[in-house]
Design a protein that fits this description.
Blueprint (H helix, E strand, L loop, with lengths): L5 E4 L5 H12 L3 E6 L2 H13 L4 E5 L5 H14 L5 E4 L16 H28 L4 E5 L6 H4 L13 H19 L6 E6 L16 H12 L10 E4 L9 E4 L2
Parallel strand pairs: 1-2, 1-4, 2-3, 4-5, 5-6, 6-7
Antiparallel strand pairs: 7-8
Helix pairs in contact: 1-7, 3-4, 4-6
Bound molecules: NADP nicotinamide-adenine-dinucleotide phosphate.
Amino acid sequence: MTNKQIALITGANRGIGYETARQLGARGLTVLVGARSAERGAEAAEKLRAEGIDARALEIDATDAASITRAAAWIDAEFGRLDVLVNNAGISGGTFDKPSETDVDRMREVFETNVFGIVTVTNAMLPLLRNAPAARIVQVSSEVGSIGFLMDQTSPMWSAAAISYPASKAALNMVTAMYAKELWDTPIKVNAANPGYCATDFNGNSGFRTATQGAEVSVALATLAEDGPTGQLWGYRWGSEDDTVLGQLPW
Ligand code: NAP
């Protein structure tokens, strides 16, 4: 049984998830590189190992309950616990249609990954997280899921008026808050991360932050001290006086 902390990051084969695995690995954690494709996960884990990181690939698809059950059983057999869960896997749905033009089937797909998938993964991993001394759960959300931010006429996001992706992240914010309440009297902390707008495949590399910066938010929440927050949306505050400073955002 290893003394090293074990972290699972979903969607870690590229983008912000890969960077999160790299940064947690550089801090000495054993990182389980979650990927829905075994091949892409193995490639990413190999790249990380070449940097001296203790990385293991783990096949896990947020929309496939059987793969989630298998992943949890494998972690249990290998380590018997999980110290950090970063639910990073997410999709945009590829559309920012107006509410009146929303394709509900596509919206459902976005919710399958961004909301239902995260609840399924979290519930499957909770027994392992409870076995760790003070586990951390990071739900990778977005400022786009903040109703307060999107309804603020002075915010840079006032012009955003789509449903699927923003509503999925707003739902994830509530999911985060409710897990934090359920686990309030335990050492487990549950927070939602706002990586900010990062240049990744997700947005055709149009973001003005880097994946490395986005990952720093998840890493900070994954390594919170005992007196750190729980039940917060936390990260970059775009539109604030200093949007490079990390902190709490309005729900
Ligand atoms: P990305 O480059 O598109 O990477 C997404 C990752 O999620 C990929 O590894 C992808 O795997 C994986 N994934 C997608 N669906 C999955 C599923 N069903 N099961 C398992 N893995 C799945 O995106 P990113 O920019 O790094 O975004 C990561 C997270 O940050 C997402 O939750 C996103 O909503 C959030 N976020 C991003 C930004 C931004 O500006 N980039 C801003 C705010 C929040 P494949 O390689 O197999 O497709």
